[in-house]
Here is the input.
Amino acid sequence: MTNKKKSDLTKKEKAWILYDVGNSAYTMLACSLIPIWFKNLAIGNAAGQLSSDAATGMWSLATAIVTVVVALIGPALGAVADRKGFKKPVFMTSLAIGIGCCVLNGFANNWVVFIVLYVATKIAYSSCNTFYDSMLNDVTTEERMDEVSSYGYAWGYIGSCAPFLVALIFYVLDYMAHKIDPTVARVIGFLVTAAWWALVTVPLLKNYEQINYVDKEHGSVVAVFKQIVGTLKKIFVHDKKVLLFLLAFFLYIDGVGTIIDNCINIGTDLGLDTVGQVVFLLATQVVAWLFSLLFAKLSKKYDTVNLISICILGYFCVCVYALTLKELWQFGIMAFGVGMFQGSIQSLSRSYYSKIIPAENSGEYFGIYDIFSKGASFLGSAVIAAVKFAGGTINIAVGSLTVFFLLGFIFLRLADKTKARTDVI
Here is the structure.
């Protein structure tokens, strides 16, 4: 147990937390209605359309492409963002691309165009998150990182419900009541989400100041990649604490990211009612909000690694339970189980990593963090795709993720016992 000072949130901390409220709206749409809209466009017997299994595999393939691209460009963009005065501009550029593609996604009536725009939006959205995560060192102190990071996820979950409710209402008017055209419902869903994402980001753009930075002139692309190679060498050769944590994170976040990206695919593959799934996922946001707030309070008293370990074990149990999943009510129980740990495992990992890296290189280090994060998601999505293309069940695919959580738990405990080598970084 540790003692951490309690105090009110500062203006910068609140602005940083609000961005989580904004981007979480897109997260919610991406893991619920967007896969449904994609399958509605893709599945059919017409020329160019796909079977249900092929559509699921194509969705997982698109997710894998996003993760690989973001993993490759993340460290380079992060290294550039670490230069004095660069972090806000590169963040704003990614934000503009993400919001723009999100709007256009709603107007796509062909499944190929739809998934291409989805991939573009996701890449920009993920890049924004890399820069956003690295801002944590600039907006708060080390002793408050766990709490502030947890509040970001907590209020992100509950805040994302507002625009999503609007999107859900129009989806129901289309899917169940047949009162409006499907294209209209889809356009409104994307437009409301993009508008919310943009609006709630304004306080961060007004209040953020880059305090930690590398005081260097903008170098060539080659110089940037040489810097990244050097940093990776330091991590792999000297800083075993960061290395072991990244390996642990790679393993356990694999299951987290895969479940988030494929939650609707899990239900639709089992033939469950899509509206019922979406309602459960909406209710899960409230569960995630409450438990993220709980873990934020616990982070003031208890060790961060112990709290992350609890989340890993919780996810392990969820994956075992998924082997028995058949009915909608069982899907609801699984969704609530995920909600209990989903925000906390990510927020506490983010804050723990922020504490063990050099603040002035946070953009570059969070780009490396994204390699392990997105690489894991790629692996998990590839597992889902492989199982589905081979004709296996979604239950087995999700159940197989338990090995990642188990290994992640082991490496996390090893990282916790290893001393940081701040002298070499």
